Amino acid sequence: MILGMDIGGTNCRIGEFIPPCGVVNFEMFPTRKVFSSTPPVKALAEMISDYVLRHGENRTPKGICIGFPATIDKAKTTVLSAPNIPTLSGKEIKESLFALLGFPVWIERDVNLLLLHDLAHHHLSADGTVVGVYVGTGIGNAIFIDGKIYDGKHGVAGELGHIPVKGSEVVCGCGNVGCAEPLSGGRRLKELQATCFPDTHISQLFVSHKSHPLLLDMIDTMALPIAAEINILDPDIVMLGGGVLQMEGFPIDLLLEKIRFHARKPYPAQDLLVYLSPASQESGVIGAGIYVTKQ
Q1: Fewer CB within a 10 Å sphere, N or C end of the chain?
Q2: CATH architecture assignment, domain 124-276
Q3: pTM, whole model, 2 decimals?
Q4: In this structure, what DSSP letter does residue 54 have?
């Protein structure tokens, strides 16, 4: 029994991974239901134990991998910062959870697991340099080099949403001023809906207003950090996804046009290889399962 779990700012997802790319007994529930009053590691253990009791049929799990919307230390034991789930920030997870569950635990940044799933979905190799950019509430970024996750010195490489933008005085969720993320992620979209398009549900913004200058400017701003990473890494593959890009009516062709406009000529702009992440609630869980099989 291989378990995968994807913890999001809004929803948690868990399931049993069936190789090579399947999942059974998939469940999803509000994140606040898990992290309400009980200490976070204990709450996770209780939720996972309950799942195993209901679906395990007396099988001992080989292990579980959990993806967090957070920065994770290089040793993959501790959540360093989780702006959307503050009670997790600074918490040691791996060994504490193992002590409570009795089977192996791995933790990772959620975007790394999403990229594992998306490469498998498209039957692509992780060899060479592969980047994944996932625009949701924030901007998630995964970097694989020669099949390995690139973590950097502290484990926090790839925080693409925190590239500084000159002239911005917006305070980011990370505490810095002028990050790209508040200008081009889901929070910006929610802000625009509330202040400029109050009569349009946020899910319909691109359907009804995709030609509006404010949304066009947001798309161009979104392209800047993506193009910056492409110019630095000259990747073999770029994967694009996330809830904002998968919204109805999102002008993906315009985003690709802006990315290529800002990418250096002739290369890497000329033969940039871009794939789109499939819209699925199960992607992070499957990616987590794939991660366990590689351990």
Answers
A1: C
A2: 2-Layer Sandwich (3.30)
A3: 0.94
A4: H
